[in-house]
Amino acid sequence: MTLSQPAKASINVTVSSIIRDCLDTLLHPSARRDVLARARHRAFIAPRLFGSLTALAAFPVYLALHGAPTGLEVLGFAWLTAPILLSYFLSRTGRYEAANMLSSLALAGLVLLVAINTGGIASFAAIWLVVIPLEAALSASRRVLAFAAALAIGCALLLVGLTEFDLLPPSQAADMPASVLMAAGVLTALLYGCGLAYCAEVLGRTSVALLNAEEQRYRLLACNMSDVISCHSRDGAVQFISPAVEAMLGTPARQLLGHGLFDRVHVIDRPAFLTALSDAGRGGEARSVEFRLRRELPYEERLGTGEFIWVELRCRPMAASAGSTADTEVVAVMRDISARKQQEQALEQARAEAERADASRSRFLATVSHELRTPLNAIIGFSEMIVRDEELLLDAARRREYAQLINDSGQHLLSVVNGILDMSKMEAGSFEIEPEPFAPRPALVNCCDLLALKAREAGIDLVARAPDDLPDVDGDPRAFKQILINLVSNAIKFTERGGSVTVSAMVEGQNLALRVTDTGVGIAADDLKRIGDPFFQAGKTYQRRHEGTGLGLSIVKTLVALHGGTISLASKLGEGTTVTVLLPLTAKGARSSSKIATIVPVPSAPAEIRNQPFQVKKSA
Amino acid sequence: MAKTVLIVEDNELNMKLFRDLLEAHGYQTSGTSNGYEALDLTRKLRPDLILMDIQLPQVSGLEVTRWIKDDPQLRSIPVVAVTAFAMKGDEERIREGGCEAYLSKPISVGKFIETVRRFIG
C-alpha cells in the first residue's frame, strides 16, 4: 500500500499539470483562494503568454524569410509583447477588470495600427476587431464587455471613416497579394477565436463543477443536520423547509409548505408561534419559541407514546441580500427538544416528589407530636392535680381515680409509641415475618372477639363470615392478626353509630381473600391515592375527627407485601369502604419489608359480599 | 355568681381533667366534643370563657372560633385555644384565627388556671 501510492501519484503528473503549477505561481495572492477566480486569472494569463512568446519566437523566422523589416513591422512585433506586460500587471496587482480593459485597448491599438497601414476597413487585420469583445466576454464583467464592444465599434467606425474620406496612408502591404493576407488575417483570428472558445468552455465547466460542489455541500448539510431550516412570510406561512423535517415529523417537506406546518402546531402553542415569527419579521431581532408539533407516526406506533414532540424555533429576519423572494421575511431553525423537555419534566417530577416527601415528613412530625401530646396532657395534668391534692381538696377516692386515668393514658401512649416503632422498623426494612402453617378461621374469630367490645361501644354491628373448611395458610399468624385488627378497628373507627362492619375470609384461586366492608364515611377519590401513606388520614389536618396515628393501613400494607400478597380499596364517600387483602395460601415472595405493596384504589361502591358464608359472630 | 366556662374537647380524659380543674377552682363548666354543638351552646349559655380544642370531629376549632368572632353578640366572649398542635407556626396560625390566648398540651396546671383567671377573674 505505502509503495503503490507514490507510483500512482507520479502517473498523474502530466504536462498540463506542470504548466498549471507554473501558472499558479504567477497568480496574484487574492486570486489563489477562490477556485473560480483562479481559473479566470489562469485563463487570462495562459493564452497571452503563449501567444506573445510564440509571436516573439516567430519574429526571427519572419526576418529570415522576409529580410529586413519595415519600421511598421518592428512596431507590430514590439506591440505583441504587450500581453506579457499585461500578464505581469495582473500577476502583481490582481486587478482583473483593469487588466482586461488594458488588454482590449492593446489589441484594439494593434489592430488599428496594422489596419490603418494596410487598407483601412478592407484590411486583413480588420477582422481582428471582432476578437476584442469576444475576449472581453471571458472576463464575466459587464463593464469590461461594454467597454470592449464600444472600443471595437469605435475602431471599426474610425477605420470606415478614414477609408471613406481617403485619409489613409499608402498601404504598405503591396508586396503580397491581398487574398493571401486576408486568408492569414481570417485564419489567425479564427485560431484565436477557437482558443477563446476553449477557455470559455473550461471556465464554464469549472463554475458548474463549483456550483455542484457547493450544492453537494448544502445538500449534505440539509439532509444530515437534524435541525430544520425554514423560511417564513410574516404571517407564518412556510416558503421553504429543509428535508430534515421529514425525519423530525414523519411528513414530507412539501406538505408543510404554506400553512401545513402551522396546522401541526399544538393549538395552545399557536399564538406563541405566530407572535415569535411576526416579532422577528417586524422587530429585526432574533426570537426563540418553544412549542409542540404533531408528529405523523406509522399506524402501529400511534398507540404508544404521545403524538406531539417539543421543538425550539429560533427565528430572525431574513437579511435583505440573502436572495429571498419578496414575500419571505423570516428565516428559522427548528430543533427537536423533546429529550430536554422530558428531562425537565422528570426533574420537576423528582422535585415535586421530594417536596411531597418533605411535606409528608412535616405532617408525620406534626401528627406524632399531636398524638403524643394528647395522652401526655392527661398524664401530666392529673398527676399535677394529685400533687396539689390539699390545695384542690382531693379525697382518696378522687386521687385513686386520677391514678387510674394516668395509667389509661400511659397505656394509650404506649400503643402509640409501639405503632410508631413498628412503622419505622418497617420503613427501615428490618421487620421480618416468620411463616408457619396456621388456621385462619380461629385467628379471624379471635380478632373479632378482641374488637367486639369496641364495636359494641360504638354501636356498630360487627359480622364475621368464614367457611368451616378454610384451609391452612402459610404465613405469620401474628402478622395475620395485626392485619385483621388494624383493618377492622379502622372500619369501626370510620363508621357511624348504627352502621355495620363485615369481615369475611374465603379461598379465591391460590389466595386467601380477606374482605373488610363497612358502611362508614368512605374515602374521597383524591384521598384514595394517598391512603396507606404513613400518618395519612383522609380529610383536613385541623378537622380530623378520628383518633389514631394514621399508621394502621400503612402497617397492613407492609405486612401484606411481606407475605407476597396484594391489597385493594374500593370506596364511595358517604357509603362505605371495602378493603380486600389477597394472601397467597403457600408462602412465597418477599421476606424483607423493603418491598411494600401498593394499594390499588378502586373508586366505586363496595361490592356486595357474594357467596353466603357462615355467620361467626355478631355483636351490637 | 360563679363564672361559666364552655369546654370544647373531643378527648374524654382531657375533658375530665379540665372540668375537674375548673370546678375545683369554683367555676361552672359545660362541655361538648362537637363544634356545631359548641356554637349552639355558646348562643344558649353565653359562657364567660371558651376553652377550644382545635382538632375536632367534623369541623375544626378554628372554624368554630371564626363563627363566634363573626357573630356580633358572641364576639366579646374570650376564646382560649388548648391544643396539642404545638409545632412551629401553630400558635401564630391559631391566634390569627381569632383566639385570645393559646395553651399547648400538655398543659401546666398553674399556667392553665392563671390564664383562665386573667380573662374572668
Q: Give helix and strand order of chain B, one letter per element, not per position.
A: EHEHEHEHEH
Strand content of chain B: 15-25%
Structural class of chain B: alpha/beta
Question: What class would the helix/strand composition of chain A place it in?
Answer: alpha+beta
* Major beta sheet summary of chain A: 7 strands, mixed
Largest interface, Cβ cutoff 8 Å: A-B, 32 and 29 residues
Mean pLDDT of chain A: 80
Q: Please identify the top-level CATH class of chain B.
A: Alpha Beta
Total strands of chain B: 5
Q: Label the overall shape of chain B.
A: globular
Q: Give the neighbour order of strands across the main sheet of chain A.
A: 13-11-12-10-9-7-14
Helical content class of chain B: 40-55%
Average predicted local confidence, pLDDT of chain B: 92
In percent, how helical is the residue content of chain A? 40-55%
> Uncertain regions of chain A: pLDDT < 50 for 5+ in a row?
1-10, 540-545, 589-594, 605-620
If classified by CATH, what would the architecture of chain B be? 3-Layer(aba) Sandwich
Number of helices of chain B: 5
Organism (chain B): Rhodopseudomonas faecalis
Keywords (chain B): Phosphoprotein, Transcription, Transcription regulation
InterPro entries (chain B): Bact_response_regulator, CheY-like_superfamily, Sig_transdc_resp-reg_receiver
Domain Response regulatory (chain B): 4-120
Strands, helices and their partners?
The complex is a heterodimer of chains A (620) and B (121).
Chain A: H1 4-12, H2 15-26, H3 29-32, H4 35-66, H5 71-79, H6 82-93, H7 96-117, H8 131-137, H9 142-164, H10 178-224, E1 228-232, E2 238-241, H11 244-249, H12 260-264, H13 270-283, E3 287-294, E4 308-317, E5 330-336, H14 338-387, H15 396-428, E6 436-438, H16 440-457, E7 461-465, E8 473-475, H17 477-493, E9 500-508, E10 511-518, H18 525-528, H19 552-562, E11 566-572, E12 576-584, E13 599-602, E14 615-619
Parallel strand pairs in A: 7-9, 11-13
Antiparallel strand pairs in A: 1-2, 1-5, 3-4, 4-5, 6-8, 7-14, 9-10, 10-12, 11-12
Helix pairs in contact in A: 4-6, 4-10, 6-7, 7-8, 7-9, 8-9, 14-15, 15-19, 16-17, 17-19
Chain B: E1 4-8, H1 12-24, E2 28-32, H2 35-45, E3 49-52, H3 61-70, E4 79-83, H4 90-96, E5 101-104, H5 109-120
Parallel strand pairs in B: 1-2, 1-3, 3-4, 4-5
